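Comment thread on ticket #2218

A.B. wrote:
> Attaching the input chain for the structure job we discussed in standup.
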Amino acid sequence: MLQITPDLLIDESDLDERFVRASGPGGQNVNKVATAVELRFDAARSAVLSDEVRGRLRVLAGTRMTADGVVLIDARRHRTQGQNREDARERLADLIRRALVRPKRRRKTRPTKGSVEKRIVSKKHRSETKRGRGRVGGDR
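C.D. wrote:
> Ran it. Output below, let me know if you need it in another format.
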């Protein structure tokens, strides 16, 4: 089980891991050992996520989510398969944790009478300053 929050767990059967060869530094180890991890989580068919959370997850995942609703996490930061596996799982859990947070709705507010007046006074002052910068009177 992958624990997202104390009351939200994702079953191992919902996760699909594939181990592939990683690119980059590592010498012969890179060519011989499949250490990179591709973690797939089918969010569209998952029973543990609500539609609201799925929608936020789609936005947060961006290009990491396929058109079918499958989240794909590619982990190849570390040299060992175990570390990459843990990294991929933690990144998925973090993504889902962020999707669980409902954003606060913005309340429309109006500026106070004093702040509007202060703004207009400062604009007039700035206007006077700029007006005084022109050419000085004249016979040209």
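A.B. wrote:
> Thanks. Noting for the ticket: The chain has a mean pLDDT of 81.
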